[in-house]
Model the fold of this input.
Amino acid sequence: MGKWLFPLALGVLLASGRAALATNFTGEVVDQDGHPVPNAVVTLVPDSKTAMPAASTRLATDKTIDQRNETFLPLVTLIPKGGHVTFSNNDQTTHQVYSFSAAKQFEITLARGEKSQPLAFDAPGVAALGCNIHDHMIAYAYIAESPWTALTGADGRAAISDVPAGNYRAVVWHPKFPPGRELPSLRAALSGDSTRLIITMKLLSSAPTSRSHAGSY
Done:
């Protein structure tokens, strides 16, 4: 128990050994078979959080989550704490978007072609999003506290530029991480012109449905 997802391998490669005031960080996430893992959130938390600026100083504060072909787009949306999300229905049917998550609770009905008012996401964490009409629809809003947070692309890489040199915890979240469990975190000493962190993770074979996330995300 408690080992559904864990780091199996960790490599830190420094492109330069000389001292630097800031580092270009790349977090590379692969699964147990060595395949790139998209839609993983990589966040760097400094040892001294008092020196950490607000996430909104680097992350866009206004995001849109679309609905097309009975699908939320994108699957994972990265929002700074205090940011806003607008829900847009470009589908051919009505949707009832909801979240029962501790990070954000709401329920809105959107007819075809409608947009919601911007919703504030003020608490850090993960909000699982669903549709009361279409149970197969699911998406996630990751509300970040650290400004040094990024989402992996199709190549499994998350790039964060100009990170102050120092000691950090690199925390990784993914939709296939079992809700309610402590997120894996790794130590990362950032120095030099660039730092690359490789994390191998064991993932669940499929993501749970939105309703099973309601009490934990």
